[in-house]
Amino acid sequence: MTPGAGAAPAAHESLPAPTTGAALELRAGAMVWRREMLHFVRDPARAAVSLFQPMLFLFILGVGLARLLDESSAGGSAGDAYLRFVFPGVLVMAAQAPAISAGASIVWDRESGFLREMLVAPVHRSTLVLGKCLGGATVATCNAVVVLACAGLVQIPYHPGLLAALLAQLSLTALAMTALGSAVAVSIRRMQTFHTVLGVLMTPLLFLSGMMFPLSAMPGWMAAIALANPLTYAVDAQRRTIEAVIGGGPAQSTAFLSTVEWGGWQPPVALEVLLVAACTAAALTWTARRFARVI
């Protein structure tokens, strides 16, 4: 692989030379991952701007709605519960923009000619896809960690176990969104079309994930669509992880903050995480198969 337009200069200099086929695949994947990370580190302004929208949702829209709920509730605790309710969705929103950018880079690399140079490397195409998606997911997770650091401001404790669990679930969700963006990218040749399709696709995925309001408040047809949305289970798993640590606090005592149910049965958090992982694996597999035909 030779440096081309948009390539990170000398990204492979410190990596050892491969000795076996597996080492060659690992080295190629690491190079692609490192290239995504270098782009992230060298452009902090883009990361800062991408955090503006989730912060706006949490600390302006969320706080406004929380105060409205406080005034309408008897005990005045519904507002704090609502902020904790929207927090997992805001975490996912913070990871969304950089996750999609990984897919956009595929379209950009194809237009600049760099993708053609990547594809002549003597490694499996799936290795290149996995390296790019892992790089995008790492960047997206780093972005969302900034919002996670604000957990104390919405009365979520800085419990080490809770933070580790949320970080793991967030990393998986970021990988799922990166895989989705890459799947769209390998099917579209024009950058303008890519952004239009992703905008149309991601907006309903986010709003139908139970991010801002529970599925129990949706009409039947909308709740059915939400149950088919993988992000619904990613958001719900994080929300229930938080509630498990908070215990019998306001989040559990507020009736409208219900969780996902299948015909009255509540799937366990582990099953929700497995569903997200299965959707991620399916998207990665499909993207790897399509990746060979992107030129």
From TrEMBL:
Family: Belongs to the ABC-2 integral membrane protein family.
Organism the protein comes from: Streptomonospora nanhaiensis
Subcellular location: Cell membrane; Membrane
GO molecular function terms noted in the UniProt entry: ABC-type transporter activity
Any one annotated GO CC term: ATP-binding cassette (ABC) transporter complex
Listed PANTHER family: ABC-TYPE MULTIDRUG TRANSPORT SYSTEM, PERMEASE COMPONENT, NODULATION PROTEIN J
Name recorded for this polypeptide: Transport permease protein
Keywords linked to the UniProt accession: Antibiotic resistance, Cell membrane, Membrane, Transmembrane, Transmembrane helix, Transport
Regions that span the bilayer: 47-69, 81-108, 129-156, 162-186, 193-213, 269-288
ABC transmembrane type-2 domain sequence ranges: 45-294
Source organism, top-level taxon: Bacteria
